[in-house]
Amino acid sequence: MIKVLFVCMGNICRSPTAEGVFRHLLRQKNLEDKVEVDSAGTHGYHAGEQPDQRTQRAAAVRNYNLSDMRARKVAAQDLEYFDVILAMDHNNFEVLKRICPSDKHDRLGLFMSYSKNFDDDEVPDPYYGLGHGFDLVLDMIEDAASGLLESLEQRLGEESEPSVNSELTADLDGTP
């Protein structure tokens, strides 16, 4: 099981969108039992709230339902528990680096590093912008989520392949 956490500032726009889009992709590929997904914010001022209504509307147009999600703040145990922790922008990435034990920094990354069609390395925060910003965020997240899924599928494939050593040992001792 690979555990992925998406992180933005308030956990009401970008990270729940990434969680919802990625869950949808996992369902399509029948990988829900192999990849666990969650989202959180670096700040807790929206804790317990649903995603922003504009976020939910934009997502619903593309058949993503975010209504059952609730915002929460990143907790210390998240930094131990999740294998892949992806920030939506540099500011939240820096916050994660400050609060994450240094031996876990290899788990941290920028979500847009998985994008194939955008040169941006950050998902812009649509909260204070106009409605079309939520559609752009969805475009970016769908693209990066697809790239992330490809990367995780490759990782899952590598983990499920029997090692060369175990195959050689089986051949040598006559066991199948």
Apparent shape: globular
So what's the CATH class?
Alpha Beta
- Write the CATH architecture name: 3-Layer(aba) Sandwich
Average residue pLDDT: 91
Number of domains: 1
Q: Uncertain runs with pLDDT below 50, 5 residues or more? A: 165-176
Largest sheet: 4 strands, parallel
Number of helices: 6
Adjacency order of strands in the biggest sheet = 2-1-3-4
N-to-C terminal Cα separation, in Å? Answer: 26 Å
CATH superfamily: Response regulator
Radius of gyration, taken over Cα atoms and rounded to an integer in Å = 18 Å
CATH topology: Rossmann fold
The residue fraction in helices comes out at 40-55%
Q: Element order, helices and strands?
A: EHEHHEHEHH
Tell me how many strands there are. 4
Structural class: alpha/beta
Quaternary arrangement of the chains shown?
Answer: single chain
**Which range does the strand content fall in?**
5-15%
